[in-house]
Amino acid sequence: MNSFKVQYTIDGEDFSVAGEASRKLKKVLQSLGVDPQIIRKATVAMYEGEINMVIHADGGVIDAEITPEKIHLFLRDKGPGIPDIALAMTEGFSTASDNVRELGFGAGMGLPNMEKYTDYMNITTEIGVGTTIEMIVNTSLS
Amino acid sequence: MKLKKVVELLDANILNDCYSQDTEVLSACGCDLMSDVLAFVKDQALLLTGLVNPQVVRTAEMMDMKAIVFVRGKTPGEEIIDLANEAGIAVLSTQHPLYHSCGVLYSEGLYK
Ligand SMILES: Nc1ncnc2c1ncn2[C@@H]1O[C@H](COP(=O)(O)OP(=O)(O)OP(=O)(O)O)[C@@H](O)[C@H]1O
Ligand SMILES: [Mg+2]
Question: What total number of domains does chain A contain?
């Protein structure tokens, strides 16, 4: 398998399509014959990040690069930024509105899940400028 | 537990063609918060929820879940059924509330 790159634009206006990009990546990974457990880890992590981009940051862009060794995800948004990353990473911490909670999100579990399911995660953020989250899931079975 | 038994125990309606009575579910998750579902790592799972929106199906799809039961008589719209069909996920609905539905399945052996 050669390296494979794909980019998704995430619409921040329409919650009903939130998660579509992650579904599409899942199909791509399945067609590339990636191990199902690895697919689950990578797509759950991306899905949490994608939902966050919609509910907290007005959308953005996700780049995925798939190589024989790893799935590399870059989630970029131009949202409000995250004031305290350590606090945001705490299980149960959420600033989600009641509206978002009614849609089934706002448990404060997204970022912890993303960390749990990936082999590497790095958040860079600037208030008023946006947030970039890089995640790697290793595909080589050890 | 076979889906056939889930349907019997919950007096559930079968809402799409992805249902097969012999589909085996090994665990279940009863929840209205999707990130709690996404934190749950079990194979061949069943999702019971009172939440009705497309993210329920996408969440179940990301987790490779086999079936969704909408509780308390909630009926999903066409968009949700279409998404589930595409994902190959069976969709059921029951009049019973979430707590009752989970309790029944648990006491009948679906306790992982
Ligand atoms: N892309 C983002 N831009 C700005 N703030 C963010 C972003 N992602 C997360 N946050 C902040 O971090 C908090 C925690 O995020 P996390 O995903 O863990 O929980 P949540 O989205 O609130 O709820 P859940 O993911 O369980 O549905 C959010 O409530 C929000 O304040
Ligand atoms: Mg989140």
Answer: 1
